[in-house]
Amino acid sequence: MSPALRPPTAGATTRLVLRDGSTAGVRRTSPSDHDAMRRFFDELSPNSRHLRFLGPATASEDLITRFCDNTDPAEALTLIVSRRRDDQMEIVGVGSYFATSPQSAEVAFTVDDHFHGKGIGTALLERLVELGTDQDFEYFSASVLPENVEMLDVFRHSGFEVHSTTDAGSVEVRLSLQRSPASTAAADERDRQATIASLRAILRPGAVVVIGVSRRPSNLGRRVFESLVASGFKGPVYAVNPARIELHGQRAYASARDLPIGVDLAVIAVPREAVLAAVDDCAAVGVRGLVVISAGFAETDARGRELQVELVERVRSYGMRMVGPNCMGVINAAPDVRLNASFAERLPPPGRIALASQSGGLGLAVLNLAATRQIGLSTFVSLGNKADISGNDLLQYAEQDPATSVALLYLESFGNPRRFGQLARRISRSKPIVVVKSGRTAAGHRAAASHTAGLAASELAVDGLFHQAGVIRADTIDEMFDIAACLDRQPLPRGRRVGILTNSGGPGILAADACTTAGLEVLPTAAGEANPRDLIASADADAFRNGVETILAGDDVDAVIVIYTTIDSSCTNDILAAITAGVVADRQRNATKKPVLVCTMASPDMPPLRAGDETLPVYEFPERAARALGRAAAYADWRAASPGELTSFDHMRVREARDLCRQIAQARGETWLTTDELHMLLQEADLRLAPGVLAHSADEAAALARVFGFPVVAKMVSEKALHKTELGGVKLHLGSEPAVRAAYDDLTARARSTIGELTGVLIQPMLTGGTEILIGLSQDPVFGPLVAFGLGGIHVELFRDVVFRMAPLTDRDADEMIRSIRGFALLEGYRNQPAVDLRAIRDMLLKLSYLGSEIPELVELEFNPVIALAVGRGCQIVDVRARVAPARPRS
C-alpha cells in the first residue's frame, strides 16, 4: 500500500464527483508527494505501465521528481486524485502536462487499475485544460497506443476539437483548448450524471441507519428513527447505540461497523466530537451517504469551524456525500420510498414540488405550511451548513426527477452563485425554480472606488442573476407556495391578458388592480363585455359554470381568475363544483389550455379544487392570485424567448489586452491604470475614448483648447482622483483661452488641497447632445465578473437606476439590460430628443462582458459617463477608470 499522503503545500484539495456517484479529492502535487507517487506507479499493473509509458518501463526517478514540482505552471503541472483506503490516503490518479512550446503542452494521465471507468481521466483532462488555458496554451498533444482505447475515448468524448494521426505504432492526438458549446455541454452532462448518481444513496436509499439513538423521547436520533419507522420506509431501518438498547422491538447495534452490508444512508445525531469516529465506522461498512444532524460546527465557534473542515475532508476522502452538518434531515415522499429521515413529525403528502431549505427551523415551519395548504412534496432537504451537498446539487437532481415539476429554495447565502446561474439557466428551460433569498436589506456595501463595484455589492447583483437565469424570486415563504401552486397545477399562460370572473364588484376591482401591478393586462373583451365580469351576488352555480366556459373560450384572454365570495354557505359546494365543471368542459373542447386560479374570499382552509385530472389552486385573496399569476407569466415570457447568442468581435485583441493587464498586475500588484495604460487597454479592446491630451501648464492647456476648438472640458487627472465631480475636478463649457487658463489654475489648486498630487489636466472637446450612461465591469469575489448598465454621470448613485448581469452576456442579455432601467424612455427619445444608438450601447456591453470573462486580472473597468449619441452616431466614452490585480490561482 502507498504511504499516507502528507498535507498538501501546493494548493487545497477540491471535491471530484465520479461517474458512479462516489467522490475523491483532486489537487496539485507538492515535493512531499514523492514517495506516494513512486509507490503509485510501482503498483500499477504491467499492462497499465505499458499503456502509460508506451512500453514495459515505469516512471524514472527524474520523472517522479518532475511530477512533484509545480513551481512553474507555464512549464509543467501535475494533479493527483486521492481516496482513503484502509485508513490512509492514497493516489488513485495522476494527470500532467509538460510544455513543448509557448502555445502547446504534452498531456498524459494514469489511473489506478481499481478505479478505471469512473471518469477520473476525463476529470483530470477538464481541470488541466482550465489550468493550461490560464497559461495561454492553445492545444494539448498526446501519444497514445492504439490499444489504449479508454484513453482515446477520454479525448474523443471530451467535447473539445480533436485531431489524431497514426505514426510509428502510436496515435498522435492534438486537442484544442478552445472552449466550445460542445465541450461545455459535454462537461455539464458529465457533472449532471455524476451528481445525480451521488445523491441517490441519500434520497432513494435501500437501507438506513440512525447513529445516536437513545431511550430519551427528546433525543434527536430517536425522533429520526421513529419518523423513519412511522413513515413506512420501504427498506430496513437500523439503530446504533453503544448500550444496544431496544426500540420498537429491534435491538440497536453497538457500532456502525457491526451493521450488515448494504446500508446506503446513515443519519448521524451524536455530539460533534463523536461525528468523525461515526464517519469512519460508516465508511468501514460501505455507507455512501450521510445526513449529519449534529450541530456545533462552523455555525458556532473556531473549534467548530476546524471540525467542519476536517469532517468534509474525511467524508470526501471516503468517497461519500453529506447533507449538513447542523441540519434537520431529508425526506422523499414518493410512495415507493416513503423516507422521513428527519425530525419532522409526519411525512408530507406526496406531490411534485421539491423543496430545499438552508434554515432547519424554517424548514420545519415550511413543512407544516405545506401540509396546511395541502401542497404535496416530492423531496425535502434541510441543507444546514451546506458543507458538501448544496442547493446546486439538488437542482440537478430535481431536473431529472420525473416526480418533480417545480423546485423551491430558501437560501440565506450563495456558495457558488456563478454555478447556480449556469445550472438555473439550463434547468429553468424545463422546470421552474422559485427562490426566497433572505438578506435583501442587509446587503453590505464593500468599500469600492468605482460606482460599479459599490453597487454590485447590493441585492442588484442577486436580482440580475435571477433574471438572467429565469429564476422566480418570491419575497416570502407564503408567496413562494402561492407561485408553486400555480406553476405545479396549471399550464403556463401564453400571454399576459387576464379575464376576471366574480360575484362581487369589490374583489373584482382589487383583482384588476393587483393584476396591473403584477404586469398583467385586464382589458375589455373583444365582444365589448366588461372585465372584470361581475355576476352579482345572486349568481348561482349555472351562472358560474357558463361564465367560466365563456371566458375560457375567448381568444382575448390568456388566463382566468375566478373569485367566489360566499353569500349563502349552503350554495358553496355547488358553485365550486360548477367552476370545476366549467374548466373540465373547456379542456375537453380546446387543445390550448389556459391557467385558471380560484379565489375563495377570506376562506383560508379551502383545499385545492379537483377539475378532472388536474387541480385548480385556491387563494384566500385576489391579490395573492394575481401576484402568483404575474410571476408565472413573466417566467413564461422568459422561457418562450430565445436564450440569445454569445457574440465575438473580430477587431478585439483580447489576448494582448490580458497580457497588458497581467504584466501591470505582476509589476505593481493591485493598482489603477495610468492614462497611457488606459489608452493601450482600450485600443486592444477596440474601444475608443473621447479625444483628449494631457496638459502640464496653463499655456499648454490654452494651446490644446485652440487646436480642439471651443468649447472644451478640463479634467483633473491623478490616480487618487477617482471621483472627479466630487472633488470639483471637472470644468465644463470653457469657451475661451482665459477660461481655460483659469480652469487649469483652479484644478491644480484643488488637487494640491484635496489629494496632494496631480498628473496633469486633461483637455477634451465639449460634446453636445446625447444622453449620459454608465457601463461598467466588476470582478465580484462571490459572483465573478458582473457587467453594469445605467444612467451615468452623477445620476448613477442618486437614482441607483442600474442593472447587473453576470458575464458572459448573450445579445439577449445585453438588450434586456438596456430596456430594464427605469430611465429607458430617455434612450428611446423623450420630449423631442432623438433616440440614441442602442446597437452601439449593446456592442459596448458585450465587449466589456468579453473582457471580464477572459481577463481575471481586470478587476474593475468603468466608463462613466458614456455619451450615447443619436442612432447611427454610436457612443463616446468620456471618462474611464480601470483597476487590475494578480488573478487568484485556480485550485
Describe what you observe in this structure.
Among the domains are: 166 residues, 3-Layer(aba) Sandwich (Aminopeptidase); 142 residues, Succinyl-CoA synthetase domains (Rossmann fold); 75 residues, 2-Layer Sandwich (Dna Ligase, domain 1), CATH 3.30.1490.20. The chain is 37% helix and 23% strand. α11 packs parallel to α12 and α12 runs parallel beside α14. The protein has an eight-stranded mixed sheet with strand order 1-2-3-4-5-6-8-7, with helices on both faces. It has a seven-stranded mixed sheet with strand order 17-16-19-18-20-21-22, with helices on both faces. Strands 30, 35, 36, 37, 38, 39 and 40 form a seven-stranded antiparallel sheet that branches. α7 links the parallel β9 and β10. The chain has 891 residues and is of the alpha/beta class. The longest helix has 23 residues.
